[in-house]
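User: I'm new to structure prediction. If I give you an amino acid sequence, what do you actually give back? Let's try with this one:
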Amino acid sequence: MAGNPYVTPALFAFLNELKENNERDWFNANKARYEADVREPMLAFIRDFAPRLARLSPHMRADARKTGGSLFRIFRDTRFSADKSPYKTAVGVQFRHGDAESAHAPCFYLNLEPGRVFVGAGIWRPDSSGQAAIRDAIVRDGQGWQRALGAKDFSRTFQLSGDSLKRPPRGFDADHPLVEDLKRKDFIAVSDKSEAWACGADFLEDFTAHCRQAVPFMKFVTGAVGMGW
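Assistant: Good question. You get back a string of structure tokens that encode the predicted 3D arrangement of the chain. For your 229 residues, that looks like this:
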């Protein structure tokens, strides 16, 4: 690819300005910029990534619909938040398992935000049954879990992230050698990147490579919650 038609400095410039002007009048006056510099390029990225994703797993989905697909909506849900800013100042793209009904599902993830770009993989904040299933799988197959984390391409690129309990979950041995992993609420891995990386000419190939490197980890957590890979 000679250039990167998906992520450009214009995307980050729009998000920076939105952060300083997070109000409906400004957004409506700049909506054409949002469409041209953010939404349409990201929908093209989702479409172009789809066949690459299918080669990693036939169960994962790249959905390029304008609403309800892989691209998260820019509007914030402010119903239960003290912050009433109407718009998100980050672009989120989630490639979710096809059998999942919510965002708390096995997925690959891309976050584009001024000063914070990252690739993610795994399950963010699974429900209580999902958490228990993954913890049970770690206890049942600790070696498989450690192999997934220790896979060379994965371990040199990703780090486990997310929140953890302060104490071991009920029913799990506090002296278990993998107790710190059993305490996790999120079973996600993150690879921090830069705006320059996202705007690079090889972005599509690089993102695909990161997802490929995360496959052993994804196979483990996806199988743990009873979904096919």
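You can read the tokens as a compact description of the fold. Here is one thing that stands out. The chain has a mean pLDDT of 96.
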